[in-house]
Amino acid sequence: MKNVLLSSATAALLICLPCFAVEGYAGGFSPTPGARTSAVVRYDGPNFGGLRLVAQLPPELPQRVTGFAYDGEKFWAAVYLGRGRYATLNPSTLGWDVSGSEKHHGAIREVSGAFASPGGIVFDGSKLWVGGAYGESLGCIDTQKWDVTHLYKGRYREHRGSQSYSGLAHDGSNLWVAWHWLNYRIPAARTQLLLKLDPETGKVAAEYPLPPGKSTDMTHGLTWDGTRLWHMKGNKLSSIDPADGRVFAQYVVPQIKRASGLAWDGSSLWIAEFDGKVWRLPF
Predict the structure, then answer these.
(1) Tens digit of pLDDT for each residue in 78-112?
(2) Which CATH number is 52's domain given?
(3) Number of domains comprising the chain
(4) Quick check: is 7 in a domain?
(5) Which structural domain range is residue 21 located in?
(6) Cβ atoms 267, 282 nearer than 8 A
(7) Residue 4: inside a domain, yes or no?
């Protein structure tokens, strides 16, 4: 299925490097070795001095976050091997609510596929998209009625190696997927991909290599800020041009160990780690 996914320290200055990445650290920026700079421009980027650990997943849930999303009012955390359970976080009070509806849990299990485990999640404005942690299913849920409205089954690559729809983002028209494939015989540029999907058909319109990370760890974070995509793997945060998959900028965030979800609230990037930590990074 090559063309079809499924069957049915503050950063105020940025060095522009066409076709090259920029490494950012709390202490400043360091261009990729050998790259030539063309200009220095103002950039409304991450304020790493304002990075704060703000929450921890409630203890009654397994401390295994695989997806994080913002619905315009609150954040949602998806739980690996949680049988469809999830938690929502109020960004004003930083208080959690833990799901208790079997209908909600059943809908999430249905679209998650193998082991009923969700991977990446995202809201498209009104509905919740859920990618399977094992890359066999992707679907959309109307969270007003908790009905499944779209469901696509199948793997992106027909191969026995584990796959995952690890991160999801929605730009208002297209669904974006951080896809990971455990195949150690080929380069990471072919096993960690950014997929652009038509949400109405499940067809892949484009694919680009993601900034790679640890090949044995399938967790990724992905989100859309209204202009560009943000991707995080391990502790490496990347800004990506949706037009061609080019990396605009890249930062190492040493406080983060294993990012597994990203969400944008209009002014800050929220970062979830697999172990249940939630961070807020203002811009």
Answers:
(1) 999 999 999 999 999 999 999 999 999 999 999 99
(2) 2.40.128.630
(3) 1
(4) no
(5) 13-282
(6) yes
(7) no
State both tokens at 25.
């650290």
pTM: 0.86
Asked if the structure places residue 3 within a domain, the reply is: no
Tokens describing residue 178: 């951080």
The burial of 69, by beta-carbon neighbours within 10 Å (0-12 exposed, 13-18 middle, 19 or more buried), is given as buried
Residue found under tokens 């807020």: 280
Q: Let me know if residue 212 belongs to a domain.
A: yes
Residue 235, CA atoms < 13 Å, CB-side half-sphere: 10
To 10 degrees, the CA torsion angle through 162, 57, 257, 157? 20
Residue type, 37: T
Cα separation, 166 vs 132, in Å, equals: 8
Helix (H) or strand (E) holding 109: helix 102-112
Go through 248-264 and write b for each residue having 16 or more CB atoms within 10 A of its CB, e for each that does not: bbbbebeebebbbbbbb
8 Å CB contact between 113 and 154: no
Residue 204 DSSP one-character state: E
